[in-house]
Amino acid sequence: MSDVTVELGDDHVATVKYSRPPDNFFDVALIGDLSDAYEQLDADDACRAILLCSDGRHFCAGANFAPGGAGTGGPSLYDEAVRMFATGKPVVAAVQGAAVGGGLGLALSADMRVAGPGSRFVANFARLGIHQGFGLSVTLPAAVGQQRALDLLYTGRRVKGDEALALGLCDRLADSDDAIHADAHALAAEIALSAPLAVRSIRQTLRGDLAERVRAATLREGSEQAWQLGTEDFKEGVAAMSERRAPRFAGR
Q: Domain spanning 1-175+196-252: which superfamily?
């Protein structure tokens, strides 16, 4: 059974929701199911915009690196992610709680993001001891600029809703966290009011070869992650995260 549901409303907005609360860790199957949903909606003329959302406290905590977790899922995870980038309908993500690591990559796969005062965007890869993934090498600099992307990737610091809006990590900031989903749906509905052929054409022009650039980036990202997963630094990063302490990296 899939953890992804799809509901198409009379306003031409399709709500694509995944449910693995509270943290909504992803794996290959979940990203594949999201890609399947996007591709099916691509073929449905009644859908003019997609609302990407999740159940639970957090939008997505990325991959589960804890003992027994699925980890990154290897190259097949990124193969599935590229399918999401290759589809044609505009996507608005409702980002409640945390979008961490690959979860930030999932949020940035959307055209636009709506967050709230309590939302947190975290590119914590270096704090875990690995290279960034999920196409963030492409999407993060596009959203915030090269220097700010370096800041976020080097430090792994948390960015809350108001700063996220200022940086460009989100496009709308709801007045309260409870209003994130409604505001994101309203934005998707506003997009759906525009001429669908024009919106699709504009999107193709502005995104260009994004899917292919993400494909190339994930090949590099996956290759770097593969060897770094075997380092002492990665083991220390995961241990520090589990124990809620600062990591003590040795550079090996």
A: 2-enoyl-CoA Hydratase; Chain A, domain 1 (3.90.226.10)
